[in-house]
Automatic annotation (TrEMBL):
Official protein name in the record: Type-4 uracil-DNA glycosylase
Signal peptide residue numbers: none
UniProt-listed GO biological process terms: DNA repair
Lineage top rank: taxon: Bacteria
Lineage start: Bacteria, Bacillati, Actinomycetota, Actinomycetes, Kitasatosporales
NCBIfam families referenced in this protein's UniProt entry, alphabetically: UDG_fam4, UDG_fam_dom
CDD domains reported in the protein's UniProt record: UDG-F4_TTUDGA_SPO1dp_like
Length: 228
């Protein structure tokens, strides 16, 4: 993963000081609501922490909350979330037994001309690095068997800045430095499929389902155990 601290003009970007000393996911969720580890909190409506089963064996990591997620305070509740739910069902992954989160917990956006519509803007390395302690804490508390990186930002947050989804998507990898840690499968972010040209969208969606199928298979084999 990338370094947990980054600076610009002498300012430290780091969520680390806001993490609680102990407690479970609820304690971390409450603490994240007060996070000021980078400037993104200034424009966002609220922190959007991860949600799902505390016994989840699969964790799905996206980039950041979108407009609807920012307003509702829940991850993957907009159009991309609905597409992800459908793909998970087709791939054989029980959404109710998964945990969904984002590499960055605040919505980064620009305002369109007219001053009403908020347009997604990708987080930069400083913001990803600053928010990394929250993602690490979620993975440490959940101890999943499989992690799915949805898109390039999630892949880089989990595997380092040199990671390329286009190169490694659909492959069954191990998290860096963890030979017996969770498997990782990278794929496209659902929002990228929604933005694709109509003629390309069906193939892109089929690729997402196939990649999630790799994660589902790894999950099933992990449940059976080695040699089963």
């Amino acid at each position: 993963m990338c370094p947990s601290k980054a600076t610009k003009d002498g300012q430290v970007y780091d969520a680390g000081p806001y993490l609680p000393r102990d407690g479970g996911l609820d304690a971390y969720r409450r603490a994240a609501a007060r996070c000021r580890g980078c400037p993104l909190h200034e424009s966002a409506t609220r922190t959007v922490f991860g949600e799902g089963s505390e016994s989840a064996r699969i964790v799905l990591v996206g980039e950041q909350p979108g407009d609807q997620e920012d307003k509702r305070g829940e991850p993957f509740v907009g159009p991309a979330g609905r597409l992800l739910d459908r793909a998970l069902e087709e791939a054989g992954v029980d959404r109710d037994e998964a945990y969904v989160t984002n590499a960055v917990k605040h919505f980064k956006f620009t305002v369109a001309s007219g001053g009403k519509r908020r347009i997604h803007k990708a987080p930069d390395l400083r913001e990803m690095s600053a928010c990394r302690p929250w993602l690490e804490a979620e993975l440490r508390l959940l101890r999943p068997d499989v992690v799915v990186a949805l898109g390039a930002t999630a892949g880089k947050a989990l595997m380092g800045s040199s990671f390329r989804v286009t190169k490694d998507r659909g492959a069954l990898l191990r998290m860096p430095g963890e030979d017996d840690g969770p498997y990782l499968v990278a794929t496209l972010h659902p929002s990228a499929i929604l933005r694709a040209d109509k003629e390309d969208r069906e193939a892109a969606y089929a690729g997402l389902v196939a990649d999630l199928g790799v994660a589902a298979k790894a999950l099933a084999e992990s449940e059976r155990g080695p040699g089963a």
